[in-house]
Amino acid sequence: LSHALRAHTLAPARVQTLCVLVDVLYTMGRGDQARRMLYIAVMRAQTEEDRLSVAVECAKHGEDSLTLRLTRSLLHRDPYSIRGMMIRGCALMNLRRFDEAKRVFARLCVILPEDTICPAYYAMARDEQTPEERLTLGLDVPRSEAVNRTMRIVAAMAQTSQDDVHELCRLSAWSFRSVIGGANTAMLSLMQMIALNTPETRDVLLDALTDPQVSDHLKYMILQAMTAAYGFKPYDADIGGRLVRLAAGATTQRQGDGEEIQTVVQAAADALAPDFPQAPKMLLPMYIALLEQSDMPDRREQPACAAALEYLFHRLSGRKVDLRRIAAKNGVSPRLCRMMAKRILRAVKNMAKNKTKGSAEHEVHQL
């Protein structure tokens, strides 16, 4: 606090030092004093950068009315300020002004077509769904509350009764999505969810896999942990802003590489996009069937696996395609591509047994 006060004394007109001081005062529980300094920062913010900085502070500490005032001024001068629109949309959601929030997030969906957070928030606003936590795009709770929640998660490591499971699930769901909570808190929560192993804790993990607010790195960790607990299974996962069916990384007997699995399946899916957006749902189970019965293909065979998956997708969908053209596009020989296609079909046949026996044998014969 003394350093923040000294910085403010040396540069009283500088908005950035005011923002730092506001953070420190809120952390120390001096809410009234922090709020006064925040209002001073609002009055002194003249540039777009300063207005955005103060708007972030207002959003972080729950001052939604001030956030709307600042973002209105900011967007009047810069109508395409993406960060400003995001903060404003979150503040409108917190105040239950769903019609206005819907318009903001609809505009963001057009400006950022690859983003997955804005469509999720647009759907919430359209359905007038009140968020469980205040929306601030990661800056979800004040730092003091984040510390309090983290300590409750740590305390649960020692002893957790059945009555505490619901509360722990709520805190874990928060930690997976929280920037201010930190990576260590998320890992503690993941360990707790796997150790408890109840339907409710599993739902928390599955929800995290498809939530665009959860980092890709944490999703990979969740997939690896679920592999050890539940075996080698495909799950829907939002990776890099795209919803795909991703393998959990390994069988229960051996540890595999989830990123290599994704690379092969995604290569085949990319070749089929955008005409066949449903392709990953068919390709991943086929590749998993192969991995369940054999070792992970080496680097030389992986392009051939991607080519074989693309070829089989067309063949099993009733379309005639040139295997040589697909093999050449992937830089592999037709012979290797045909061999991998036969191996995948046999693996699918063995896994499905009587359900796909006839069609699989016919395709192997045709190859």
What sort of overall outline do the alpha carbons produce when their principal axes are compared? elongated
Q: How many domains, as an integer?
A: 3
The CATH class of the largest domain is Mainly Alpha
- Tell me about the largest β-sheet: 2 strands, antiparallel
Question: Alpha-carbon distance between the termini?
Answer: 74 Å
Q: Which value, in Å, is the CA radius of gyration?
A: 26 Å
Spatial arrangement of strands, main beta sheet: 1-2
pLDDT averaged residue by residue: 76
Q: What is the number of helices?
A: 19
Query: Which secondary-structure class do the elements indicate?
Result: mainly alpha
Summarize the structure in words:
It is a single chain. This protein has 367 residues and is mainly alpha-helical. The protein has three domains: 2-126, Alpha Horseshoe (Serine Threonine Protein Phosphatase 5, Tetratricopeptide repeat), CATH 1.25.40; 140-228; 231-367, Orthogonal Bundle (Cyclin A, domain 1), CATH 1.10.472. The chain has 19 helices and two strands. It has helices at 2-10, 15-27, 31-44, 48-60, 64-77, 82-94, 98-111, 117-126, 143-156, 165-177, 183-196, 199-209, 216-230, 258-272, 279-293, 302-316, 323-329, 334-352, 357-366; strands at 234-239, 242-247. The chain has a two-stranded antiparallel sheet. A hairpin with a 2-residue loop joins strand 1 (234-239) and strand 2 (242-247). Helix 2 (15-27) packs parallel to helix 4 and helix 18 (334-352) runs antiparallel to helix 19 (357-366). The longest helix is centred in the last third of the chain and has 19 residues, at 334-352. It is elongated. Residues 249-256, 354-360 and 362-367 have low confidence and may be disordered.
